[in-house]
Write a structure and sequence with these properties.
This protein is about 50% helix and about 15% strand. By secondary structure, the chain is an alpha/beta fold. The structure holds nicotinamide-adenine-dinucleotide. Keywords: Oxidoreductase.
């Protein structure tokens, strides 16, 4: 979607951090912006800032883990701006427990927001884009969707799933006028760790924390820079949006390990290539 001027973006988790950075960058590109977040005050403050800068922006409260709430977000976006061209499924939380310690409610919180949040967005907004033959969906994964390690097991489970979902979605819609990108940042300087605690619903709170030391997000990239990369990538229709190169060797090692196992299989048991099962 190389022309963004006058089009509408819906960004979840836009009350803070990367989502707020994407909101600023899309507004700067001339888009009308729906700032969606579970934290109403923060969403309103970002929308007010965009409006003060001359953009058309509204704040909408949404809980992305709840399909009905995402359906209501779509209705409010259409009511305000008639169409949605860009959907950024960006809302996410961090649960940093080791898998051996994590309560099932830790898993549920992590998966309900990070993974179901993206699923609900795709389910709700994709049909209109396909019907119109135009649109773009950006799903926020992480470098933790390409490489993993403790204590990020719960988080990486959701982020690997988002990468897989996005790769499949790309193949499903690429020839139907709808673009797909998956955003995989390394550390970004946001409120991810504190905000994840603040907005955690009681229903998925076991009351006990087994948190390991959290990643030092304060040492990370500015969210504004990430927002600009997202806008560039939507215009260029890039699939992978990579904002850091410091883990290149680790990504290479992971892929080399997979390929080594494929080659080892062929050497020990013979090639299955061309065989019908
Ligand atoms: N900060 C990093 O280093 C980093 C790195 C890679 C990926 N990410 C991902 O970027 C995305 C944005 O995170 P961030 O770092 O900007 O953190 P952040 O906490 O600053 O922003 C996330 C926003 O999502 C909102 N949110 C949380 N649960 C929600 C829900 N159920 N419904 C709607 N909104 C909800 C929060 O209120 C918050 O405003 C997340 O998906 C995160 O996993 C962050």
């Amino acid at each position: 979607m190389n022309e963004l001027q006058g089009k509408t973006a819906v960004i979840t988790g836009a009350g803070s951090g990367i989502g707020a950075g994407i909101a600023q960058a899309t507004a700067a590109a001339g888009m009308r912006v729906v700032v969606a977040d579970i934290d109403t005050e923060r969403a309103q403050s970002v929308a007010d800032e965009l409006s003060a800068g001359g953009a058309e922006a509204i704040a909408v409260q949404v809980d992305v883990s709840d399909l009905a709430s995402v359906t209501a977000l779509r209705e409010q976006a259409y009511e305000a701006f008639n169409e949605v061209h860009l959907l950024c499924n960006n809302a996410g939380v961090w649960v940093g427990a080791m898998m051996a310690d994590a309560d099932i409610k830790d898993w549920q919180y992590q998966i309900n927001v990070n993974l179901y949040g993206v699923i609900h967005g795709v389910k709700t907004f994709l049909p209109d884009m396909l019907a119109r033959g135009e649109g773009h969906i950006v799903n926020t994964a992480s470098l933790g969707g390409l490489i993993s390690g403790p204590p990020e097991g719960l988080y990486c489970t959701t982020k690997f799933a988002i990468v897989g979902l996005s790769e499949s979605l790309l193949m499903e819609v690429a020839d139907k006028g709808v673009g797909v990108s998956v955003l995989c940042p390394g550390l970004v300087n946001t409120d991810l760790i504190t905000q994840s605690e603040k907005v955690r619903p009681a229903a998925v709170d076991p009351g006990v924390r087994h948190d390991q030391p959290a990643p030092d997000v304060a040492a990370g990239l500015s969210p504004a820079v990430v927002g600009e990369r997202v806008v560039d990538s939507v215009k260029d229709n890039n699939f992978y949006i990579i904002t850091h190169d410091d883990y290149r060797e680790v990504i290479e090692m992971r892929h080399a390990g997979i390929l080594a196992a494929v080659d080892d299989h062929a050497r020990r048991y013979g090639s299955t290539s061309g065989r019908t099962f």
